[in-house]
Amino acid sequence: MKKAWIILFSIALFSGCDKADEEIIDQKEHTSLDLTTSVNFQLVWQDDFNGTTIDTTKWSRIPEGNPDWKNYMTTDDQVYEVSNGELHLKGIVNPDTQTDPRPYLTGGVWTRGKFNFTYGKVEVRAKMDSAQGCWPAIWLLGSTNEYGGWPDYGEIDIMEHLNFDNFIHSTVHSNTKSSPSTKTANVNPGEFNTYGVEWHPNKIVFSINGTTTFTYYKEAGADWRQWPFDRDFHLILSQQLGGSWVGGVDASQLPVDYVIDYVKYYEYIASPTPPSGSNQYIKIQMNGSTTNQWSHLTEVTLINDNAEYTLPVGHDAPSILGDGIGINGASTGFYGLDSNGLLVINLGQGYDFDAVKLGVYNGDARIYEDVEVSLSTDGNQYKPALIKDVQNFNTFNFTSNQYIKIQMNGSTTNSWSHLTEVTLISEGTELVLPAGHDAPSVLGDGIGVNGASTGYYGLDSNGLMIIDLGQKVNFDAMKLGVFNGDTRTYQNVEVSLSKDGINYGTKEIQDIQNYQVFF
User: Fold this and answer.
1) Smallest Cα–Cα separation from 132: which of 245, 250, 241?
2) I need a labelling partner for 4 at 20 to 30 A (CA). Which of 72, 106, 152, 498 fits?
3) What share of the chain in percent tops pLDDT 70?
4) Where are the alpha helices (DSSP H) in 414-459?
């Protein structure tokens, strides 16, 4: 049976606050709750294509060459355009085969020799035309050849689109590839999408519009044959036509246009070790259904203020299961639970961390039910366990908050007097805060559910309200409701949480009509 609870003894609410509001952080770049991204990357290089020409300090045009993808490359202006904040790379029928006998011409740019990098995150927002033989791509290629020629020096294909497919390919190339090394993901290529990759020292994570689509892992003990991804690469944006993979070109469907809105590169910053603290022991208890004592447990990651620290190899996993640990369910090694479904990890010293992420082998489709995680300072007395199901990975958040800040910065005519519900959500169980939260008497006193009109909360003249829960409480999400007879949309509503009422964490900003769940 699934277990979830919220303990709440006393609640008090205060309207108004003298503290200055914190700076709003860019949600896309720094505050994603997907913990596979976040603070490990810092934006250091970008091109928004706001001029009228290609920035030659960043890019070079790609000339003709021998591989399929270079067959029709040219540096000629007619396949390049920078306008309206976009770079256009075109594929056309060659209008002058007397000067150049090739039937088609295509455009491509790369950063080779101008911007090379090892590790980091790349994001490219782009859309593309479809045609028979059309092959636009976003990819990284090794910049040096000390490991040999292609594919020994490595290739990371962030996005490749073929013909009229409604999906793209993400692929890793090296001398010896692990399986799987490629994956497809559905997409509408004619619409703008943000194609991304996070390149870590031990994994390569592909994404579309911020959602992870595929992860490739460094194997335990791997050398350059499986992992040449430990040295400089450069970025390539290419509009390609024809070749052994994509097939022949239908000239009647040309020209095609590959449009790039922006390119961003974030420098990789190694995850820190969590600061010293009191938590030394982690107990993992498997009480749900499993056939092998959860031998596919492959990752235990500590999370402190959104920074991740994945425990390294050597944490006494039973030898029969091997010794080591993977990332987000990689199959490079397993932790083993004993015959009672129990594992206790001694971190060696105390650390301060907010959450523990558990990963299972991502080839395992089972759901491990009712997994309990608890912490201890001495290995004897453990704090109350958090209980979750795990498939692929799940995060057990030990952070508890006492204060909720709600800020109304969007359009409203009455300081958001129609706020009717504040609900805490933990493991799918909802606790609606009860009546009596000092809503201004002129607005009535009480609270509804999902926007019911039984009573209203009131924000102060600055559109601000602080809720003091009376004690620290564990919850996963919070739902705000507005009177469901009110058809207005309250825009840019900010919610942030605090342990002490002074230091507030990440803001989540959403519009609300009827109700909306935050975090």
Assistant:
1) 250
2) 498
3) 76
4) none
Tell me which of 238-242, 260-264, 435-439 is least confident: 435-439
Catalytic residue among 86, 123, 160, 372: 160
Helix/strand/coil for 109: strand
Domain termination residue (choose one: 247, 268, 289): 268
Tokens representing 38 are 């976040």
Domain that holds residue 493: 12-26+401-518
Are 291 and 144 spatial neighbours (Cβ–Cβ below 8 Å)?
A: no
Complete DSSP assignment for 22-33: PPPP-HHHH--S
22 labelled catalytic: no
- Does one domain contain both 407 and 442? yes
Question: Which of 212, 238, 268 is where one domain is finished?
Answer: 268
The residues near 313 (Cβ < 8 Å, ≥ 6 apart) are 220, 323, 324, 325, 333
| 169 or 223, higher pLDDT | 169
Q: Which residue among the candidates 81, 86, 123, 155 is catalytic per the annotation?
A: 155
Going by the DSSP 8-state scheme, the letter that residue 333 receives in this structure is: -
Q: How confident is the model at residue 173 (pLDDT cuts 50, 70, 90)?
A: very high
Please say if 160 is a catalytic residue. Answer: yes
Classify residue 35: in a domain, yes or no: no
Residue 4 located in a structural domain:
no
